[in-house]
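Have a close read of the entry that follows and walk me through the local backbone shapes. See right below:
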Amino acid sequence: MSDQNIYVKKFISYLTVKDYAEETLEKRELSLNRFINWCTDRDITDFKLITRPVLESYQRHLYYLRKQNGQPLSMATQRAHLSAIRSFFKWLARDNHILYNPAAELELPKRQQKLPRAILSIEDVQLLLSLPDTSTPQGIRDRAILETLYSTGIRRRELSLLKVQDVDFKAGTVFIKHAKGGYERLLPIGATALKWIDNYLYDIRPLFVIGPDDHILFLTDYGEPFIKTRLSFLVKKYLKKADINKEGAAHLLRHAMATHMLDNGANLRHVQEMLGHQQLNTTQVYTRVAIRKLKEVHANTHPIA
């Protein structure tokens, strides 16, 4: 293992202790290894030799790089790669592995605020929620999962890590311990979702427990937590059954929750808190698709509407 790879391993270990999400750790390590390979191809084998012009050259490399399908890397992907490098060199300088930080003034691509690719209507969601066969244990579990995703808008990873004790039936809340960025948040959850969780928790979940019980709320048929791919597969199965041909899976219910709440008059900051966004402008993208109220005002007030 090269010295560069050793430093990357130490950096990832540092982030692990800081309680970064496993997915984040994997992505940062991948980005840094990609950068090391680029450096090695150019005979740059010592981080002390890396200057700001070298980093800017790598930034141009990412900009002109093409994927196998001929498409460029998205600005979000380029930004993620460069952000990993910038935080890595900050750590190297702080711990005196290098004399100065060449990435300190590296400008990242502007963050793009894209509209969600697809938004489920309320009718779409109602159909989707009705599809699990609740005469079976799997159907009751799946219904509880779909209801929870739509009621709270939580991410796939957040749902997969929920524990039984994170749901407070009396208070009508769910506690998210493993939110993106390491933040915690307490969210309201609707009565309908709680009803289905209750049906699942006491009558069905014991059927899925295999071996020691670590109290993960939602379990697969094999007694395991729902890793993100399995959860996506579950949601896609019902989307296909509903003949809803829209790209996405669990995130569609997150987008739907945010859009429907805004459509019905929710305050933008309240939706921001539900989604766990650290910046309000990240949530504002939903105001561009949640236009039902605006259309009503337009119809009622525009002189020739």
Remarks:
- The two ends are 69 Å apart (CA to CA).
- Residues 144 and 195 are 8 Å apart (CA to CA).
- The first strand starts at residue 167 and ends at 168.
- DSSP finds 14 helices and three strands in the chain.
